Amino acid sequence: MSEWIPLLMFLVVCLVLLAGYPVAFSLGGTALAFAALGTATGVFDVAFLQALPNRLFGIMTNQTLMAVPLFVLMGVMLEKSRVAEDLLEGMARLFGRVRGGLGISVTLVGMLLAASTGICGATVVTMGLLSLPTMLKRGYDPKLATGTICATGTLGQIIPPSIALVLLGDVMSTAYQQAQLDMGIFSPKTVSVGDLFVGAMIPGLILVCLYIAWLVLMAWLKPESSPPVTESDHGSTANRSLFLSLAPPLLLIFAVLGSIMAGIATPTEASAVGAFGATLLALTKGQLSLARTGEVVRSTTEVTCMVFLILIGASVFSLVFRGFGGDEAIQHIFESMPGGVFTATLIVMLVIFLLGFILDFIEITFVVVPIVGPVLLAMGLDPIWLGIMIAVNLQTSFLTPPFGFALFYLRGVAPGSVATTDIYKGVAPFIMIQLLLLALMAIWPGIITWLPSQVYQ
User: Fold this and answer.
1) Which pLDDT tens digit goes with each residue over 2-53?
2) DSSP structure class, residue 423
3) Residue 455, Cα to own-chain centre: how many angstroms?
4) What is this structure's pTM?
5) Which of 28, 66, 103, 334 could in theory staple to 313 by disulfide, Cβ–Cβ 3.0 to 4.6 A?
6) Sign of CA dihedral 129, 130, 135, 138
7) Cβ pair 182, 327 in contact under 8 A
8) What is the Cα–Cα distance from 384 to 159, expressed in whole angstroms?
9) 320 close to 35: Cβ distance less than 8 angstroms
């Protein structure tokens, strides 16, 4: 009977979350309740909880996680400094005369904004407020407009430097070392956040190209769904405006990613460069008032506190889960599955996809990945490949009706004239595109692993 307790723990946490309780307290509270019950019945060794102070101290001293508040600061600062608005205006002038040009502009701006902010919700809300009214006013089909905005908003999950990849990289590194130790390898290799950043570049660019290809196809098959913007200015003024709006964020992204890829800086050091660069950019644009700085600091503090409080709750949960023998139970289940590693990976991906309906990427990264990651990696999977597959899988989950987070974000800022069913129908083609990318990466893992092997050879 005791071998089912870890799975019961997981089920209870999902039920508590569905009841609306805060994530961090749901994780920690459920774990401590089960630990108390297990101690009383003699099936849990309370000595496991003595490791909790060391775990919390490890979170406090983890240098990789220092990148989180700095990348959040970078993203919030760029969001407040009207970078997206200037980018969208410049792109619309450049592509406006082409059918589907405004949709292509939104996709490209969403990609740059995702790379700048790394926060899915911020990108969806910002693009929804800035571009959706314009697209509807220009005669775009509401389904195509909302689908494009939701899909490009979720690029913040996969386009580096992504907060999701920072957190996933840290957890995947621990899982990889544990998997090697379980296999008897006592000088384990490591995988870093920088590895995941580089591994995500090609899949991210493929995804953007597939989005644009779909918009071009729709403009050809249904011209009325994405009409051109007839009064766009296409002279030298537009080109100069585009250059002035594109150059600063592109230089910032290049400085952050280039310093990581060149080995000049770690992701944590690069995040400091990004935060400083975003602040400098806001200053040069005249957007760095005292009131705005206060807003940025407040937002950064709120997001950072949420992330670390969830991490503490997840640490308590994973410790108690392991104390009940949950890792051995998961390993036994996976190894006894017909089809071996393929079936195990497929089941994990399906479970993560479904959990994406009720949990954000932070909870899934801190709760699910530490449980299943070591087992899958011990079965021979590449840690970079597994990390990017999980990130794209979650990105797809956040788009999928009726519970996708991106749909809720856009519904919150969309005008009343846009029906919820239009948003659901609009994202359907983009979900198929992301499933296609997942299939391609599963069939050809080199899409993910080739670039890291070249950069870090």
Assistant:
1) 667 888 888 888 788 778 788 788 888 998 999 998 888 888 888 888 888 8
2) H
3) 23
4) 0.82
5) 28
6) positive
7) no
8) 15
9) yes
